[in-house]
Each structure stands twice: as C-alpha cells, then as structure tokens.
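Revision sheet: structure tokens.
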Amino acid sequence: MTKVWRPGELKLQASVLSIGAFDGLHRGHQALIREAVRRSLFHGVPSVVWTFDPPPRAFFQGARVLTPLPEKIRRLSAMQVQHVVVAPFDEAYAKLTAREFVAQLATVAPLEIWVGYNFRFGCDRAGCVETLSRHFDVHVMGPVCCERGEPISSSRIRCLLEKGQTAEARRILGWRDPPELRPRLVA
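Predicted:
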C-alpha cells in the first residue's frame, strides 16, 4: 500500500526517487516511474515519488489539471510506488530556492533520482539536472513518443482535449481505465 507524506515528514536511510508533476500520469511518466520502481527493487530500497499539488503549470498558468490528487495516488499505488511525497504547491513553495529543494530531497536519501528530460526546479526554475547531479546520482529519461513519433506530454494532452480529441488523448495517456476526459466548455 502506498503511503502519502508531506515534505519533511518522510525520513529514509535510502530510496530511489522520481520527481515530477506527473499530471495525467501519461505513458512517458509511466515509463519513468516504472524504471525508478525497478531500480528500487534492484537496490532493495523503497520507491518514492515526489510530486506537487496543484501541478506547477496549474498554479502559474491556470492549466487544466488532468489527474486530481486522489486519482494520481491511486494510479501510483497501482504502479507499486511505496511512498508519495506531495508538496503543496503554493506561493511559499514556489519561492523555494533550488538549494532548499535539494535539501528537502535529501530527507529521503535517494541512491538514484529519476527525472524527465525537461525537469527544472526551484524558484524561477533555477535548478536543472546538472544542479541535482552535484548532490545525487541522477538519471534522465528522454521523451517517450507516440506512434506518430511526437513526444507525449501533459501539455499535448491538454491541447487535444481543447480540440475535443478525447479518444486521442486517452490513447496517449496509456491507461486501461483512463480518467474521465471531457473537452473544456468555453462560456
């Protein structure tokens, strides 16, 4: 069973950590998290997902949230993630420096950190993979593409929904039981 924590509550001696907004938990997210879980089993340590609620893009840009937190946790649990740290993304959290964010991650003692190719963190997105690599063993997963060769992303899924292309959005999400997706109605 997956346990849910706030930053600072979970203290581990070792873990394999994946970090991201993971909005939609699409096929790219699934590939990254499954690899992190596989590596945690290899090392014999807990798997941890560090995510944000709401997703930063929703906080800053008002983007549609594809996966409400309870559904995200349910899907992470189905992927055998042992711990989920949910950072409440608000004005205070958005002001954390890259250094402060790295210090938060240290509480779970990651042997490995898994992130996507476009991962940035900290106030003004000042931190990058190179910043993390100064402190941890970081692994970067490149883009996962759909059958047409286009990268799968939460932004692309939102765009498909705005165009009313829910079948295509469901297909690239990659879930057998996709979330209820409806185009947003504009008044």
